Amino acid sequence: MIRTRFAPSPTGYMHIGNLRTALYEYFIAKHGGGSFILRIEDTDRERYVDGAVDIIYKTLEIAGIKHDEGPDVGGNYGPYIQSERKNDYMKYALELVEKGEAYYCFCTKERLDSLRAEGDVGVKYDRHCLSLTKEEIENNLKNNVPFVIRQKIRPGKTTFRDEVYGEVTVDNEDMEDQILIKSDGLPTYNFANVIDDHLMNITHVIRGNEYLSSTPKYNLLYEAFGWDIPTYIHVAPVMKDAHNKLSKRNGDASFQDLIEKGYLPQAIVNYITLLGWSPSENKEIFTMEELIECFDVKGISKSPAIFDPEKLKWMNGEYIKMLSPEEFFRMSEPVLEKSIKTPGVDLRSVSDMVKTRINTVYDIPELVDFIDELPEYDKSLYRHKKMKTNEENSLDFLRLIIPVLEKTPDWDNDSLYSAMVNTAKENGLKNGQILWPVRTALSGKPATPCGASEICVLLGRDETLARLKKGIEVLGGNEIG
């Protein structure tokens, strides 16, 4: 059975690349009827951020990713925590020492720093402690000399197969004797990964392609223990542009940032999944269930994917359109309440009007700001080539419609629309020659979330007539009334 794991470090917010990895791991497991495991790799205590584990857990929950097993926490599965498994790692490291596949290193920080100072930036450890005698090692341990345990890299070459990049060969000479157990007794990220993946029966390891060059180290450890090597799937990074990776440090949005900016979780999940993966069918909008059903490793690209904020906005707008009116009103109501202070405005009607015209709920304020107050605007807005309106004839059309609206008994959309189009017909005009000047005079904006008659209803009779008369003034005519 397929078993995958997501193993983030609790060092802050969940960035886009990390979430994409979690999604791919989740889809691969669920597509194959397998299990998805959550494991918190918190052995790097210097980079540990308080509260980051909760952020990871909450992010996965919001994204719709549920892990399948782990310690029981109040009747639910909690994540596996590496720091709580400290004794397991030391046991396996000592086993490697016994087998001659690892060794104690007692070098001080000062000595290691001097090596780097004397050599190139990428200088490797010189294996100084590999030549220590058994007596020297025992004496150092007896005297509690601080130590780390290093992997002993064998000579030769290591070849492995990756599902995305194919066959990869690395010269072992290029690899350093990496540290497996640090001086505090905790494992390094690389060593803990191998041990936990084996103990948890992980069959497929999905991670960023920056780990391609490190994979031979993992495989040498698997071979030293006599364990099965998992299937590897390395994925290219998500980029900000052609030269720069997405980075929280550079101000790029995390998953939490996108949620706070009004993006729907399902839209984010859909978009991120398509960053570096292509479905076999020609479509872009998928439910979580559809992604599980159609996800195929063969669709993962070797090329980096560039995060396009505009494409995400578009996709979020498509998801908003698919919401029911009730769902969208629940989401938009807080924004509408802050944006519209005029008493008596039907916020539910406004919600219905803006639903298909926005990409996030935070596009709403700019669309509806004219309701509270008519903005200053230039009379050139009355110009519309298709509607055949300009500043001169719009003045005439406003003078024509105001008396009609003043006499319209029922102030509702149907009555007002009929009054305007009938006036146009009776005077041999296009509908737009009445509707466009009215909409412009009422909103002072080049675009509105609804038509002229609907704006009349939102504003009410008195405000509508007052703004139409103001429109005549803007156009240089004398006020009516």
Describe what you observe in this structure.
This protein has 481 residues and is mainly alpha-helical. It folds into 4 domains: 3-78 and 238-306, HUPs (Rossmann fold, 3-Layer(aba) Sandwich); 85-235, HUPs (Rossmann fold, 3-Layer(aba) Sandwich); 323-368; 379-474, Orthogonal Bundle (Arc Repressor Mutant, subunit A), CATH 1.10.10.350. It is built from 19 helices and 14 strands. The strands form 6 sheets. The chain has a 3-stranded parallel beta sheet with strand order 1-2-5, covered by helices on one side. Strands 6-7-10 form a 3-stranded antiparallel beta sheet. Helix 1 (16-31) packs across helix 10 (288-294), helix 9 packs across helix 11 (309-322) and helix 18 crosses helix 19. The model has no long low-confidence stretch (mean pLDDT 91).
Brief rundown of the structure:
This protein has 481 residues and is mainly alpha-helical. It folds into four domains: 3-78 and 238-306, 3-Layer(aba) Sandwich (Rossmann fold); 85-235, Rossmann fold; 323-368; 379-474, Orthogonal Bundle (Arc Repressor Mutant, subunit A). It contains 19 helices and 14 strands.
The side-by-side strand order for the widest beta sheet comes to 1-2-5
- Characterize the largest beta sheet: strand count, sense, and whether it forms a barrel: 3 strands, parallel
Number of helices: 19
In CATH terms, what is the fold-level topology of the largest domain? Rossmann fold
Number of domains: 4
User: How does the helix and strand content classify structurally?
Assistant: mainly alpha
Shape: elongated
